Amino acid sequence: MKQADIGLIGLAVMGENLALNMESRRFAVAVFNRTVAKVDVFLQGRGKGKRFIGAHTLKDLVASLKKPRRVMLMVKAGQPVDEFIDQLIPLLEPGDIIIDGGNSHFPDTIRRTKSLESRGLLFIGTGVSGGEEGALKGPSMMPGGSKAAWPHVKNIFQKICAKVEDGSPCCEWVGNDGAGHFVKMVHNGIEYGDMQLICEAYQVMNQALGMPPKDMHKVFKKWNQGELDSYLIEITTDILAKTDPQTGSPMVDVILDTAGQKGTGKWTSIAALDLGVPAPTIAEAVFARCISAIKAERVAAARHLPGPKTRFRGNRNAFLEAIRRALYAAKICSYAQGFALISAAAREYQWDLHFGDIALMWRGGCIIRARFLGKIKEAFDRRPDLPNLMLDRYFTGILKKHQDSLRKVIMEAARLGIAMPAFSSALAYFDSYRNARLPANLLQAQRDYFGAHTYERVDRKRGEFFHTEWQA
């Protein structure tokens, strides 16, 4: 009987495209779907005449696999993953591998790794980024879990993933248990921040300068040829050029301004709070989506809450260049937050993470792929223990040159009544991080006053705590 190199469960768009990607790299793939009829539809359609083995039961799927068996789940995160794992366990043997390729929450991956290893099985939780096109043509992949499983999947993963200019694969082992899914979660959180920053740049061009989408298209196209070169700037350029076939209006103007979300940005913000790591730009990007969702309230409020009556009166070209510089500076601050969060998680969960490799994995295939990720890799190659990305000489230099533009754009937006929460939070993060003394001394005094929470003194060693009877 012909045997497959890997089994894949879940033939929704991502799973189907990933299966086709594997087969195109000359791997034989066994496929199964909860709705069994979908297997036959796939084999008679996009999978016809190719190296696929259709399975109508999980038992048939497992029986069709080479040992050690590799079974990849491309199903909805949460309970469906656990349900399939429970069904697979009795069918597998020690050393067999279950792979979760969905957007699972990293604590679930930690739990599943421990549970399956206790049964002699191996588990991988891997982030797969790049959307439908990436799954088909080459995603960025961030695997973590049971390290013993990596040699058995490395060849498959690195052949199907995206490659950077020198041929390096955008996939490398991340770390134990939930490390892969944690890094994918932070990738998505950074993605939230990137998207919101771009949207705020669009908003200030629109409301302050009165620019129509066709003019903004030209600006973003030019930006994408320089240091802001990235997938998100590229697709923004395309979006701004698109016309609605029904109305003839710019497509972006007919889309309702209410944003959805699937939860990974929220997870990133919660993880930052749990680990005590400031990630305000990511959190503000999540909140921006939340406030966009209360459309009816905003429409009503617009009739009752007046803003400034003033107009922009400066040099338009100079201001556009300031927006470009501000966007790059804010982007650096946002990525600094993301990598600081990954670093804190590495310490908390005892993951041996290599930050340069993570930046390399994000260079291609994924949604946040960008030219400047190469600069991030260089920064961590120079100093693997770099405490914050902003302290690398390249990024320090950019922030020195561009911070005035970031301040100028935020001030002008505030003067005109244009909300820029992500830009503002990035600047606040930068100013807080570079400030040797923050007002937390007063805050500690307040806490000690009403709750006897104690405080440390500037003239004593760290770790000694004191209390004052404030009303004595």
The portion of residues assigned to helices is 40-55%
Q: What is the averaged pLDDT score?
A: 96
Number of strands: 8
Radius of gyration: 25 Å
Number of helices: 19
Order of helices and strands: EHEHEHEHEHEHEHEHHHHHHHHHHHH
Return residue spans where pLDDT drops below 50 for at least 5 consecutive residues: none
Strand content: 5-15%
- Termini separation: 87 Å
The gross shape turns out to be: globular
The strand line-up of the biggest sheet is: 3-2-1-4-5-6-7-8
Largest sheet: 8 strands, mixed
Alpha-beta classification: alpha/beta
Structure report:
- It is built from 19 helices and eight strands.
- Strands 3-2-1-4-5-6-7-8 form an eight-stranded mixed beta sheet, with helices on both faces.
- The chain has helices spanning 13-24, 37-44, 58-63, 79-88, 106-117, 131-137, 150-160, 179-209, 213-223, 231-241, 264-275, 280-293, 295-302, 316-349, 355-361, 373-382, 393-416, 421-433, 440-451; strands at 6-9, 29-32, 52-54, 70-73, 97-100, 122-129, 140-145, 175-176.
- The mean pLDDT is 96.
- With 472 residues, it is α/β, with parallel strands linked by helices.
- Helix 8 packs across helix 11 and helix 12 (280-293) runs antiparallel to helix 18.
- Helix 4 links the parallel strand 4 (70-73) and strand 5 (97-100).
